[in-house]
Structures are given as C-alpha cells and as structure tokens.
Design goal:
The chain has 6 helices and 5 strands; from the N terminus they run βαββαααβαβα. The chain has about 170 residues and is of the alpha+beta class.
C-alpha cells in the first residue's frame, strides 16, 4: 500500500533539492517511490507541475517508432514517423500516471505565491533511515495519508528535531 505525502517549501529550489535527495535514497533501496512531483505557484497564482516522467515526450518517442515501422511497410517511413509522433504525443499528454494532476493543482492552490510543494507517493520505506536523511530540510507537511505518529515523526525530522519513531512503524 502506498502513502501520499505533500510538503510545502519556501522555494522551488528547496523542493527540487529534497526530491533529488529522495531519488538518491531510492537508489540506495531505502525507499520506493511511485511518483515525486514538484508543484510551483507563481506570483500570478498559476500552478506548474514538474513531473518526474514527461508522458508527452515518452508518447512521442513511442509513436515515432511505431509510425516509422508501419511507414516502412507502406514505403512512407517519414510520414509514418511524423503521424506516429503526433499521435503518441497527444496520447501521452492525455495519460496521467502516479498522483492525479487535478488533485495536485487543487492542493497546491493553498500554498503562497512564489513557493512550492513536493508531492511524494511512497510505496515502501525504511522509516528511520529516510527520516534521518531528511533531518533539518525544513518544509511543512500539508497533507498525508500517514498515521498521526508517522506524520509527527516526519514533521519533526524536517524541522531537525529528533523524534521517537515507533518500533512497529515501517
């Protein structure tokens, strides 16, 4: 079962720095991420989502490949590639993987202009080591599906305070 955590940060740079730290922890097998998105609210109140996976680009690449392959069969590889890339890009743009984009935009509407929120979908984690790695990073937990004890431990770690993690929590 996955857990969702939303943390507000004063700047986009800080939110991205923490996301990169989480991705590094994932490479060390300390946690498994389902998604990690930085939402930025500009001074006009517009919200931009910086996704881990660009589904539009991935769709365009896949579409170009299949379009070229089909185009070769009909002796029109360039036309096939162009049509395939366009179709793949449209399909990719309409695809939503990980955390729901509407939910992220609605939630990020609550943050102040010029700030950012980090949305993390966590599948598995080694809680004590991840909390130690996030110690003192700052940020405020906005929403979470964690229980109250784990949420308090996360907020304490972000604030740089040593919090007691329950023995059974993982």
């Amino acid at each position: 079962m996955s857990d969702l955590v939303v943390i507000a940060f004063p700047t986009e740079t800080k939110a991205e720095e923490v996301r990169q730290k989480l991705l590094a922890m994932q490479k060390e097998y300390l946690l498994e991420l389902g998604d990690a998105v930085v939402a930025v609210k500009d001074d006009k109140g517009n919200i931009k989502l910086n996704q881990m996976i660009n589904t539009t680009a991935a769709g365009a690449v896949g579409g170009a490949f299949w379009g070229t392959l089909i185009g070769l069969i009909f002796l029109m590889p360039l036309a096939g590639a162009a049509l395939g890339a366009a179709g793949g890009a449209v399909g990719g743009a309409l695809t939503d993987v990980g955390i729901n984009d509407k939910f992220m935009k609605d939630t990020a509407a609550a943050i102040k202009p010029g700030t950012a929120a980090l949305f993390v979908l966590v599948r598995k984690l080694t809680a004590d080591k991840v909390l130690e790695g996030l110690k003192g990073e700052g940020g405020t937990v906005l929403k979470t599906s964690l229980d109250h004890t784990k949420e308090a431990a996360l907020q304490a770690a972000l604030a740089g305070v040593k919090a007691a993690m329950p023995a059974a929590a993982a």
